[in-house]
Amino acid sequence: MYDARAISNFFFHRAAEAGSGLTVMTLLKVLYFAHAWHLAKTGNPLIAQPFEAWQHGPVNRVVYEQYKGYGKRPLDKPALSYDPVRLEFTETQAAFDPATTAFLSNIFDYYSRFDSFTLSDLTHEEGGPWHIIWKESQNRAVPGMVIPNQLIERWFQGQRSRLVS
Fold first, then answer.
1. Domain limits at 30?
2. What is the model's pLDDT at position 126?
3. How far apart are alpha carbons 112 and 163 in whole angstroms?
4. What is the pLDDT of residue 160?
5. 163 band by pLDDT with thresholds 50, 70 and 90
6. What is the tally of structural domains in the chain?
7. At residue 16, does pLDDT exceed 50?
8. DSSP collapsed to 3 states, 61-83
9. Percent of the chain, pLDDT > 70?
10. Concatenated DSSP letters for the chain?
11. How far apart are CA 145 and CA 126, in angstroms?
């Protein structure tokens, strides 16, 4: 599993290399799809921090906190985390193996083509993980509005089956 900020930085740099802007909303949705498809493909989480059901779809809070002041403006800096050795905040990094790099590249290249509201709509599918938690919260308390990985995995495995057949 990786820190969500490291995956975000991979996407941030990929967007920069392509000369395209990346908004926080697009980043959060692409991050979610990467985590979801990784779960469906491998049965293992890609990202260590949970996703929460917010009004506009799944959100990874640790990444949102980095960029919440951006609104619709393109991101202009990578995500940071505290380095206890250097005693300062530095760019969050991770060493990705070639298979993970290819997976992340493919996810980003596919999903980043859509505008942020289309991505949000894709996460709101009826019966999907976000929808289930959002609806449950109307009737009972859902601590942290956390979307369980098992729910994400089951939904995306079903989506994968529909794509293959």
1. 4-164
2. 94
3. 20
4. 62
5. low
6. 1
7. yes
8. HHHHHHHCCCCCCCCCCCCEEEE
9. 96
10. -B-HHHHHHHHHHHHHHHT----HHHHHHHHHHHHHHHHHHHSS-SBSSPEEEETTEEEEHHHHHHHTT-TTSPP-S--EEEETTTTEEEE------HHHHHHHHHHHHHHTTS-HHHHHHHHT-TTSHHHHHHHHTTTS--GGGEE-HHHHHHHHHHHHHHHH-
11. 17
Token pair of 23 as six digits = 């908004």
Instruction: Check if the beta carbon of residue 123 is closer than 8 Å to that of residue 130.
Output: yes
Cα distance between residue 116 and residue 99, in whole Å: 27
What distance in Å separates the CA atoms of residue 156 and residue 117, rounded to the nearest whole number? 20
Tell me which residue has tokens 């906190």: 65
Tokens representing 163? 């794509």
Q: Would you state the structure tokens that stand for residue 100, as one six-digit string?
A: 């993970």
